[in-house]
Design brief:
Layout: E1 4-7, H1 16-38, H2 42-54, H3 61-74, H4 79-94, H5 106-115, E2 120-123, H6 128-136, E3 147-151, H7 161-170, E4 178-182, H8 185-193, E5 197-201, E6 220-222
Parallel strand pairs: 1-2, 1-4, 2-3, 4-5, 5-6
């Protein structure tokens, strides 16, 4: 069996700044208009009502939006916020307001690995719908068909070895047949604890000071997907 490649997104395939400096501000700015236009649609209303109920039964959409914007500022990982952000981002991608930038070495490597028969999967703290939106709308084209699995924190925390055991089970692979790519050493430690092979992506744009020696905690370190040995 070919090695299955499981990759993180932020700091690994894409710069951390894209989510922080583009996606989050876009959602924050677009939420008021989005809620005014779509707030009565059932798939939107359910999430707005959840926020209202959890915050003392607030009844005005303007107040709900302010609460959501506060959560964005706090980088809070709330189910309703993730769902609504995903809807806003989908509209932004569709309208051509932005595309998801990948590091230039990423798309060629993903396409080559896929062509060689390596299954590809994603594990990111962003929701699965947001992951799919990103890879369907990259500056290198639609890469969504390359992937056969998407996982978010519903399987567990990224710094918990059990999360990686569950992912291996859902991919129907033994841990030793999976290679996890991430820029976060603690996540790689957890994956290694589950028996998964690991590679530390040390992107200069995100980490100007190279992480070498003890800072890698024994993980193979590369600065580009082109340097990864499967």
């Amino acid at each position: 069996m070919k090695t299955t490649i499981l990759t993180d997104i932020e700091g690994t395939t894409s710069s951390i700044s894209f989510v922080k400096d583009v996606l989050f501000p876009y959602a924050r700015d677009a939420l008021p208009g989005f809620v005014r236009e779509h707030g009565n649609e059932p798939e939107v209303r359910q999430w707005l009502d959840m926020v209202a109920t959890e915050n003392g039964g607030i009844c005005q959409d303007e107040m709900i939006v302010e609460t959501l914007q506060g959560w964005i500022d706090q980088d809070r990982k709330h189910t309703a916020l993730k769902a609504l952000q995903g809807m806003v981002w989908e509209a932004g991608y569709r309208d051509g307001d932005f595309a998801a930038p990948l590091y230039p070495d990423v798309a060629p490597a993903l396409r080559a690995w896929h062509a060689e028969g390596h299954p590809l999967a994603v594990y990111s703290s962003g929701s699965v719908p947001a992951q799919k939106l990103l890879f369907a709308n990259t500056d290198a084209g639609d890469l969504l068909p390359l992937f056969s699995g998407f996982f978010d924190t519903e399987v567990g925390h990224k710094r918990d070895a059990d999360s990686y055991r569950l992912i291996a089970d859902r991919l129907d692979r033994s841990p030793g047949e999976i290679l996890f790519l991430s820029d976060v050493v603690a996540e790689l430690d957890a994956a290694r604890g589950a028996g998964i092979r690991t590679v530390l992506l040390d992107r200069r744009e995100d980490y100007p000071e190279p992480r070498v020696g003890d800072a890698t905690n024994g993980h193979v370190r590369v600065e580009s997907f082109a340097d990864i040995v499967l």
